[in-house]
Amino acid sequence: RKNVIINRNAVTLNKANEIARKYYSPENIILVIVGNQKIIKDKLSDIGTFDEVYYKDDPK
Q1: What InterPro entries does the annotation carry (predicted)?
Q2: Contacts from 9-17 at CB under 8 Å and sequence distance 24+?
């Protein structure tokens, strides 16, 4: 496989979606989101459900 540098402005949303559908399966993707739960949780509800993990120093 060859690494290629591309102009990100040359890639359309449709092309990016086409490539994502071709090479990635939703069953094989792990999405990690880090941030303030109070701010982002409601905004992420449209995407789906998530497992929440807290770190020992997290004030929750």
Answers
A1: Metalloenz_LuxS/M16
A2: none
**59 has pLDDT over 90:** no
Amino acid in position 30? I
Cβ neighbors of 44 (< 8 A, separation 6 or more) are: 33, 50
Q: pTM surpassing 0.70?
A: no
Instruction: Kindly write down the DSSP assignment for every residue of 1-60, as one continuous string.
Output: -------GGG--HHHHHHHHHHH--GGG------S-HHHHHHHHTTT--------TT---
